[in-house]
């Protein structure tokens, strides 16, 4: 493990965030001398970010914990173009109104993780700020961009970056619109350097090429030395991507996913991932993590509960985490139906079992629901049901619908 002089790089290294650094010694020296403003960009393609974005959010949190300034760049402009990184197809383009509504919704999640300065005021040196790259990108003239920025990019070089190369190798279309994305992201770094003295861009390992482009553009046009840090690609031990669960994306905003389901996502972490995820996604001290990650057998479940409690408290607040933990305890340890379970209101006196599973989010489709019923994985009030034509007849009170041992919902009238 590398040894750094700055609190920033030591913190990032100890907790497993560092994959690549463009000039580690120079960034380390800078971070010991001054507050380093650093940014990560987030496109506003949905009303909420998901767990796949969480390592980037935590990276900004660590930056602030080490005394530096987080800059959240919302891609109001770049969302209109679409990042080709890791994509096999052209992304649906949103209206300006839709993008702005998404940005307002996404900000509420960031306010859980970062300390922002007073609205409209200067704020402290390490207070987080949120900016929208549409503020400068939408004002760029096309000829101006071609003349001032275009000469610093070669097509030869751009074709070598994974975001472009992999798409072409798979013979998937890459539009000229998307091809320009890396130029716009590089320009973001230049503009942030000028506007707010930004000296650091961070992101996932798939953003390395885009970050290097921004560093080179700032150096060539302004002679400014700026830096880049990327995180490893965060996958689960089974090889699947972070951010997805059996029933879909694990959203950060509560109106997109219940706190119980969010808590349960972390509680279901693979034994092999518990220590790593505690370091990345919670503020639990490293010595406590070292104790928890070596627990074996049934005791590892206690570590998973700590992970679920602390990750949920960061994202949803301590009260929501405690309520989710109590619901899980009542549901799993006492066999009753916890009050905080996802609840589906049934109109009329009954609902088909297949429809109930889909509406409750326990199955992604009617076909999946029928398969689970046939496998004997579905229970009503803890009694197995194998008939996919079964009608759930509602009475007073609620009915507990279960898929397997760990996923539950309540049906109410």
Q: Could you explain how this protein is built, in words?
A:
Catalyzes the attachment of tyrosine to tRNA(Tyr) in a two-step reaction: tyrosine is first activated by ATP to form Tyr-AMP and then transferred to the acceptor end of tRNA(Tyr). Pfam families: SYY_C-terminal, tRNA-synt_1b. The protein is 43% helix and 14% strand. It has helices spanning 7-14, 24-33, 54-65, 96-113, 134-137, 142-148, 155-158, 162-169, 176-179, 181-196, 208-222, 259-267, 274-281, 286-292, 300-316, 318-333, 353-359, 366-374; strands at residues 20-21, 37-42, 69-74, 129-132, 200-204, 227-231, 244-245, 248-249, 343-345, 350-352, 378-380, 383-384, 391-393, 398-403, 407-412. The protein has a six-stranded mixed sheet, with helices on both faces. Strands 9-15-14-11-12 form a five-stranded mixed sheet, covered by helices on one side. The chain has a two-stranded antiparallel sheet with strand order 7-8. Strand 14 and strand 15 (407-412) form a beta hairpin. The longest helix is centred in the N-terminal third of the chain and has 18 residues, at 96-113.
